[in-house]
Predict the structure of Expansin-like A2.
Amino acid sequence: MKIMAVKFLPFLFFLFVSSATACDRCVHQSKVAYFSSASALQSGACGYGDLAIGFNGGRLAAAIPSFYKQGAGCGACYQIRCKDSTLCSKEGTTVIVTDLNTNNQTDFVISSRAFMAMANKGKAKDVLKLGIAEVEYKRVPCDYKSKNLAIRVEESSRKPNYLAISFLYQGGQTEIVAVDVAQVGSSSWNFMSQNHGAIWDTSRVPTGALQFRFVVTAGYDGKWNWAKSVLPADWKNGVIYDTGLQITDIAQEACSPCDDGNWKLH
């Protein structure tokens, strides 16, 4: 599958800079609470719906607005570990953002499965009793190994006049900040708008099989990725289609250097 990189468009550059001000790859100190069930995050603001429960073994998170990034932060991965060394491991756990956290007492609200995954062996129930844990965390690359980036046609799509999609299994440490769609073989591209969360849509749907190009943050800039043939002419709602691409870029942040790769020990 061909991947095309071009100079980042100026207006997208400003979007990238604004989304990077959170410096989420730095190590942060905060608190984390949990939902009693991962299913509580299924109807999250990112719009993943029932699929969310199967992500990352159910280790899911609702993130504060500066990390949710008006939906651009959906699907981002964070490593979280609690500071109580008698109960928690140095490795902690990795969560995927599927929702927006509006609780101003904690940076994340995570699933109970993720909360217990921070524990030392045999201490999961004791960690759960904490309710709210003192933690440190940082953003880390998502690793889906053999899975390619995929596009799901949302149930709200209405052929031929409306198409809504979401991106799944986005690896690396990046954000998608622009999406275009065109008929396969055509150079007439229509931009898609970010509807909410991870959902992109358009009411100008090309006919026939569809190709996509999208900008991901990469380095201190960004690049276009081109999936030349993704949706067949008879695309269907609710179906997940493989783009044939793997995203592995690690975006840099326009903030003070902080990512030295080291975590302080307990």
